[in-house]
């Protein structure tokens, strides 16, 4: 479960980062519409710089013009993509809003559980187990047990629900 949770959050975060960069570089949608923004940029570093400065106005790139990864936004948070799309006036902001409007708690709860697997202490364990209450799952002994349990009224485990929700969101973002 450790590997699965860490990879799921990392994959989602890397997707959002790449999605943002692609939009800033005027990528085309599946329907062959070019994405427009209120910025004209020529490089990935420029796109990252705009995102970094939105969250860390005092951050500066290194001598080669690259930004430190720790200065970048927390890409796994869907609010980051909402804010970037609004700030830079993405022409497909409505599609982003629609894709991210699913009533999934995966984007809220995955980071909490991921923090347990990344840090493994009593506080992160307690926080991860508390997530179970949102899904009608109680009496757990470990975060791994939480992820393998089926939420109330669901046919599959919580981790599979989260994977499905994130996959559906990615598909909606890529195929508006």
List the SSEs and their pairings.
Elements (H helix, E strand, L loop, with lengths): L1 H23 L19 H12 L22 H10 L5 H7 L6 H14 L2 H10 L11 H6 L9 H17 L2
Give a description of the structure.
The two termini are 32 Å apart. The longest helix is centred in the first third of the chain and has 23 residues, at 2-24. Helix 5 packs antiparallel against helix 6. The protein has helices spanning 2-24, 44-55, 78-87, 93-99, 106-119, 122-131, 143-148, 158-174. With 176 residues, it is mostly helical. The protein is globular, with a radius of gyration of 18 Å. It has two domains: 2-103, no CATH class; 106-170, no CATH class.
Radius of gyration: 18 Å
* Major sheet details: none
Number of helices: 8
Mean pLDDT, all residues: 95
Series of H and E elements: HHHHHHHH
The assigned structural class equals mainly alpha
Q: Give the helix level as a range of percent.
A: 55-70%
């Amino acid at each position: 479960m450790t590997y699965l949770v860490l990879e799921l959050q990392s994959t989602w975060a890397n997707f959002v980062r790449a999605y943002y960069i692609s939009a800033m570089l005027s990528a085309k949608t599946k329907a062959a519409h070019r994405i427009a923004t209120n910025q004209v940029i020529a490089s990935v570093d420029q796109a990252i710089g705009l995102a970094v400065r939105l969250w860390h106005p005092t951050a500066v790139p290194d001598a080669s013009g690259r930004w430190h990864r720790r200065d970048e936004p927390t890409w796994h948070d869907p609010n980051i993509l909402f804010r970037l799309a609004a700030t830079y006036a993405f022409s497909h902001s409505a599609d982003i809003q629609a894709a991210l409007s699913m009533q999934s708690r995966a984007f809220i709860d995955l980071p909490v559980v991921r923090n347990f697997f990344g840090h493994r202490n009593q506080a992160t364990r307690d926080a991860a187990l508390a997530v179970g209450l949102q899904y009608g799952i109680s009496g757990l002994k470990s975060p791994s047990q939480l992820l393998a349990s089926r939420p109330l009224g669901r046919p599959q485990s919580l981790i599979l629900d989260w994977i499905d929700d994130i996959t559906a969101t990615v598909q909606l973002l890529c195929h508006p």
